[in-house]
Amino acid sequence: MQTKFHGKAQAYDQARPGYPDAAMRYIASLISACDHAAADVTVDAADSTATGTADNMAAGITSGTMTDAVVVADIGAGTGKFTVPLARLGFGVVAVEPDADMRGVLRDATRPYPNVTVTDGTAERTTLPDRSVDAITCAQALHWFDHDAFLAECARISRGESFLLISVYNSTSFDSAMMRGVDRGVPEPISEDGNVTDAVNAANVSRTADAVAVSTGDAADIGVSARHFRETAAEFFTHPTIRRFPNPIRYTRESWRTYMDSHSHSPLPTDPEYPAHRAWVDAIFDARAVDGILTDDNVTMVASERIRVR
Prior knowledge:
It comes from Bifidobacterium ramosum. Belongs to the methyltransferase superfamily. 37% of the residues lie in helices and 16% in strands. By secondary structure, it is α/β, with parallel strands linked by helices. Helix 7 (178-185) packs across helix 8 (202-213) and helix 11 (253-261) packs across helix 12. It is globular, with a radius of gyration of 19 Å. Residues 36-67, 175-191 and 196-223 have low confidence and may be disordered.
């Protein structure tokens, strides 16, 4: 299968930002608690009777390469930017990716980790066995998913009465002057452990929406990850807990070019519109860079919730 990222896997892998250690420690604490899930789960997801077909996944889940306690499905895994740090935490990980180009890089990136199995599948049809996972992660991906079909698939592959859903987005400051917007909407500084507030639910997501939506100049054209996070948090979650983690990125001209080439809407170098795209990318760098470095006050956003399925 080819997606809008086909032909962009190398650029994506080279230049897309990773995730800070503090965010990964927080996510690890959420996943580790899957064996001790709270009983007061309030969200219902549609059930499904479809049956997964990935024999290799069945073998991987039942073998010693995956923890018997917790198995995580990383859906829309891309090139493994989130899958690899997740694997380093020691969990059994099933990485699901539909694009052949991205999946090839993903396989190479996860080869050193026997606790990772890579499979060809979509968010709506993962091909994983029934009742096989405990937690589901989506990094930079949830906005691509069909809401009803995805939650039905989550219900099918969840092996408990509920599953933990975690959505992660790197929200670049170029999206919409996000840092200034968040500072106005949430006066507290962002700490390394992500604790702006004890818990931020969907109402809080709406509270910061206006601030996050403020754009400046070319910012609205560069990316929409802040909007993706806000909208998917409202669509896929009912009472999410939200954390924010500083994740500043420093770009040289070349790494900035590669980063911009990695987006789904960016033309490929062989496309006729690519020269104009490159000129636009360079103009942004020239306008924003200081001493040859463009600094992005990127923030890693994490939304999580336990969702009941049975």
